[in-house]
């Protein structure tokens, strides 16, 4: 009713379809749903089904290779772009813990996506427009609030 986006985390990329179905039954528009951690499930058929639902998909946890190789994230992003779902993709680092910050002798930090990940996408032919969509335009749309006009 508020038009506010709902961001939900999946556990290792599972239960996304079921989560979407529950929210849609409750009257939530797919464009108000943001699914995080979905890409941790390497099944491309599953990824395509999630995308076809019309929700936003966050490729988060980039650089956190303890879960899966980053090449899997890249493959999924490339497939999503090929399938025409680029307008639904968001990128995030999911680096909230101080152990992920270089300042505390941790991981790659907040600059990783721009300094390391984006150059990899560019080398593989992802356009500036597609990158700008994933980093700026899509998040702007996904996080907007459209009040119910009733």
Task: Give descriptors for this structure.
150 residues, single chain, alpha/beta, four-stranded parallel β-sheet, TIM Barrel
Q: Specify the CATH homologous superfamily.
A: Metal-dependent hydrolases
CATH architecture title: Alpha-Beta Barrel
**What average pLDDT do the residues reach?**
85
Number of separate helices = 5
Q: What count of structural domains?
A: 1
- Could you tell me the strand content as a percent range? 5-15%
CATH fold title:
TIM Barrel
Task: Write a short abstract of this structure.
The protein is an alpha/beta fold and 150 residues long. Helices cover 39% and strands 10% of the residues. The protein has helices at residues 16-25, 44-52, 70-82, 112-123, 128-142; strands at residues 6-9, 33-36, 56-59, 89-91.
Overview of the structural elements:
The chain is built from five helices and four strands; from the N terminus they run E-H-E-H-E-H-E-H-H. The relative contact order is 0.15. The chain is globular and about 40 Å long. The model has no long low-confidence stretch (mean pLDDT 85). Helix 3 links the parallel strand 3 and strand 4. Helices cover 39% and strands 10% of the residues. The chain has 150 residues and is of the alpha/beta class. The protein has a four-stranded parallel sheet. It has one domain: Metal-dependent hydrolases (TIM Barrel, Alpha-Beta Barrel).
Task: Map the helices and strands.
Layout: E1 6-9, H1 16-25, E2 33-36, H2 44-52, E3 56-59, H3 70-82, E4 89-91, H4 112-123, H5 128-142
Parallel strand pairs: 1-2, 2-3, 3-4
């Amino acid at each position: 009713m508020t038009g506010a986006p709902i961001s939900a985390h999946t556990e290792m990329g599972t239960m996304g379809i079921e989560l979407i179905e529950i929210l849609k039954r409750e009257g939530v528009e797919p464009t108000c749903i943001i699914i995080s951690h979905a890409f941790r499930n390497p099944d491309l058929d599953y990824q395509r089904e999630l995308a076809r639902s019309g929700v936003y998909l966050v490729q988060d946890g980039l650089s956190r290779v303890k879960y899966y190789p980053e090449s899997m994230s890249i493959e999924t992003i490339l497939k999503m772009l090929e399938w025409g779902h680029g307008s639904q993709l968001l990128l995030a680092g999911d680096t909230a813990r101080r152990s992920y910050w270089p300042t505390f002798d941790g991981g790659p930090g907040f600059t990783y996506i721009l300094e390391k990940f984006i150059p990899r996408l560019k080398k593989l032919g992802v356009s500036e427009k597609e990158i700008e969509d994933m980093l700026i335009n899509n998040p702007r749309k996904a996080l907007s609030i459209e009040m119910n006009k009733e």
